[in-house]
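Hi there,

I know you've been waiting on this one. I reran it after we fixed the sequence typo, so this is the corrected version. Both the input and the resulting structure follow.
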Amino acid sequence: MHLTVALDLYDQKVIGRALSAGMESVHTTILALEMAFANRNARESLIFHSDRGARHCANGFRERLEERRPSARQSASRKGNCWDNALAESFFKALKRKLETVGGEHSAREVRSSLSMYVDAYYNRIRRTFSPMHSALHYVAPDAL
């Protein structure tokens, strides 16, 4: 299973996600992007930051981003620099620490169910953001803003 997430850097909220069996952009980044647009009214100054993975560089993904938000800019991390995508890395680390179903021995249905519970019931609603850059947000959960 492959998980793709779209995170809002302002409030660290997961606004889009896609869980798929394959790595094609139509089943990963495009679905996560569509969910993100459905959950958040993107402004004209949207910057979509990602790593340099093939799914984010795929023509289909770039075309969909252009269709949905013509003024959007796509930003990619520097080659070999994981710190440019630190929020996503932090999310995946927390996910692996909290969910036992991501180890590979559970069914897709179990993984999908536990992922939904984790993101919708905990990560976006209860988890408090303790990042120093979010002290202005009073260290509250993303949905509390």
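Quick highlight: The domain at 2-144 is CATH 3.30.420.10 (Nucleotidyltransferase; domain 5).

Best,
R. S.
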